[in-house]
C-alpha cells in the first residue's frame, strides 16, 4: 500500500494563522461547519485553542484540523474540517482517530458533536468510528440566509 501523503501532529503556536485561514475557507462553503463568512482570521488565529488540537499537514500545507474542547464534566466537544481538495483521501479518518486517542488518554468518557442533517460525508465518517445519533435539535441554527437548520447530535462513549 502507498504511504499516506499527509501526516498528523499536534497544532503549535505558529500554526494559528494557517489554521484560521483553513477555517475561513471551509466557513465560506457555508454547508459544513456552523460558522459563516465573514471570519476575522486574525482574531480567530489569536483565540485558537491549541490544547486538544491536531492538524493534518501535506508538505508545508495544513490540509485538515480536528479540535476537542474538553469539558470539566468529562465529555469533549469535537469539531473538524478538511480542505476541500483533500477530502475523500483519509485525512478526516486519520484526524478523528487521533482525536479519539487523545480524548481517551485525557480521561474523557465521551465525545459529542453536532452536524447538519445534509452533511452525509461527516455523518458517515462519525458512524464509521462508532458515533451514534442521539437526537435532533429542530431549527437550531439561524443561517445568514434566514433559514433555520436542524442539527443532529452524535456521541461516542470512549
Ligand atoms: C467531513 C469531513 C471532515 C470528512 O473528511 P475526509 O477527509 O473527506 O474523510 P475521509 O476521506 O477520511 O472519509 C471518511 C469516511 O467518510 C465517508 N465519506 C467521505 N466522503 C464522503 C462522501 N462524499 N459521501 C459519503 N460518505 C463520505 C466515508 O464513510 C469515508 O470512509 P471510507 O473511506 O472508509 O469509506 C470533510 O468532508 C470536511 O471537512 N467537510 C467540511 C467541513 C465539515 O463538514 N466538518 C464537519 C462538521 S460536523
Structure characteristics:
about 160 residues, alpha+beta, 7-stranded mixed beta sheet, 4 helices, about 30% helix, globular, binds coenzyme A
Helical content, roughly? Answer: 25-40%
Helix run count? 4
CA-atom Rg in angstroms: 15 Å
Ions, cofactors, ligands: which are bound?
coenzyme A
Topology, number of strands: 7
Principal-axes shape call? globular
How far the N terminus sits from the C terminus, by CA atoms, comes to: 30 Å
Biggest sheet strand line-up: 1-2-3-4-5-7-6
**Overall pLDDT level:** 97
Are there runs of 5+ residues with pLDDT below 50, and where?
Answer: none
Helix-strand category: alpha+beta
Major sheet summary line:
7 strands, mixed
Beta content comes to 25-35%
Sequence of secondary-structure elements: EHHEEEHEHEE
Amino acid at each position: 500500500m502507498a504511504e499516506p501523503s499527509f501526516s498528523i501532529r499536534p497544532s503549535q503556536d505558529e500554526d494559528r494563522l494557517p489554521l484560521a485561514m483553513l477555517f475561513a475557507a471551509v466557513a465560506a462553503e457555508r454547508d459544513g461547519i456552523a460558522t459563516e463568512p465573514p471570519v476575522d482570521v486574525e482574531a480567530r488565529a489569536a483565540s485558537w485553542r491549541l490544547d486538544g488540537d491536531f492538524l493534518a499537514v501535506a508538505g508545508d500545507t495544513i490540509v485538515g484540523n480536528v479540535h476537542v474542547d474538553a469539558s470539566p464534566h468529562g465529555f469533549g466537544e469535537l469539531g473538524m474540517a478538511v480542505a476541500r481538495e483533500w477530502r475523500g483521501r483519509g485525512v478526516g479518518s486519520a484526524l478523528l482517530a487521533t482525536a479519539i486517542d487523545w480524548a481517551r488518554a485525557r480521561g474523557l468518557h465521551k465525545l459529542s458533536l453536532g452536524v447538519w442533517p445534509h452533511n452525509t460525508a461527516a455523518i458517515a465518517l462519525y458512524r464509521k468510528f462508532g458515533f451514534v445519533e442521539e437526537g435532533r435539535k429542530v431549527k437550531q441554527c439561524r443561517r445568514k440566509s434566514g433559514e433555520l437548520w436542524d442539527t443532529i447530535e452524535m456521541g461516542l462513549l470512549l
